[in-house]
């Protein structure tokens, strides 16, 4: 895939991956990136689904938002088939990470902003915190040289837009369907 934003990517990947490199960030970004991964997010959703009331409803909304986000990300990865930066660029700090799928868009960034957006809509008091965590996850993908900055920006936009769509359109319709058509809808949720 030819990148029309090459200078943007080159500048930021050089700044974030090379110039910001230090022991503290090595530790922080290597571990924080996992918060946006499939295992962490699946555990979060499953934990929320164990509760009743608002946590369970949040877990259901997150499930739908993550499903929509993931489908779109995976379709785009197969359309664009963009190689990861560490496959192409020399002298990057790679931290031993070796992934076999494509780079565009960033799935971790999309998923983390999908979750942050849904949580922010439902719990405004912690909105800034969850968005900050999602931002750190997104930056970690560049720091670890597994994504170009444009991959991350695309992931942020996709995750945010998918969650806005789910929160305002899809999830309310889903809740209405459950309440109208499933006898255990009310008892399952509350």
Polypeptide structure, described:
- The model has no long low-confidence stretch (mean pLDDT 90).
- The longest helix is centred in the last third of the chain and has 33 residues, at 149-181.
- The protein has helices spanning 6-19, 23-32, 38-50, 54-80, 85-88, 107-122, 127-143, 149-181, 185-189.
- Helix 3 packs antiparallel against helix 4.
- The protein contains 9 helices and no strands.
- With 190 residues, it is an all-alpha fold.
- It is 73% helix and 0% strand.
Characteristic key phrases:
elongated; mainly alpha; 190 residues; 9 helices
Helical stretch count? 9
Unreliable runs: none
Number of strands: 0
What is the arithmetic mean of pLDDT?
A: 90
In terms of DSSP E residues, the strand content is under 5%
- Reading the helices and strands in chain order gives HHHHHHHHH
- Morphology call: elongated
Helix percent reads: over 70%
Question: In this structure, how is the largest beta sheet organized?
Answer: none
Cα gyration radius (Å): 18 Å
Strand-pairing-aware structural class: mainly alpha
Distance between the termini: 48 Å
């Amino acid at each position: 895939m030819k990148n029309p934003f090459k200078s943007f990517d080159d500048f930021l990947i050089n700044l974030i991956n090379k110039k910001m490199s230090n022991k503290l960030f090595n530790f922080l970004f290597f571990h924080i990136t996992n918060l946006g991964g499939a295992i962490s997010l699946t555990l979060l959703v499953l934990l929320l689904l164990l509760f009743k009331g608002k946590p369970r409803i949040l877990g259901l909304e997150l499930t739908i938002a993550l499903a929509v986000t993931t489908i779109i990300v995976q379709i785009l990865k197969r359309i664009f088939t963009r190689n990861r930066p560490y496959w192409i660029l020399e002298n990057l700090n790679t931290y031993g990470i070796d992934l076999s799928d494509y780079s565009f868009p960033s799935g971790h960034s999309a998923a983390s902003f999908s979750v942050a957006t849904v949580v922010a809509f439902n719990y405004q008091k912690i909105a800034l915190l969850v968005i900050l965590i999602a931002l750190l996850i997104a930056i970690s993908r560049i720091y670890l040289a597994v994504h170009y900055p444009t991959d991350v920006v695309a992931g942020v936009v996709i995750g945010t837009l998918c969650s806005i769509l789910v929160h305002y359109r899809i999830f309310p319709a889903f809740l209405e369907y459950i309440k109208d058509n499933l006898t255990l809808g009310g008892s399952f949720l509350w």
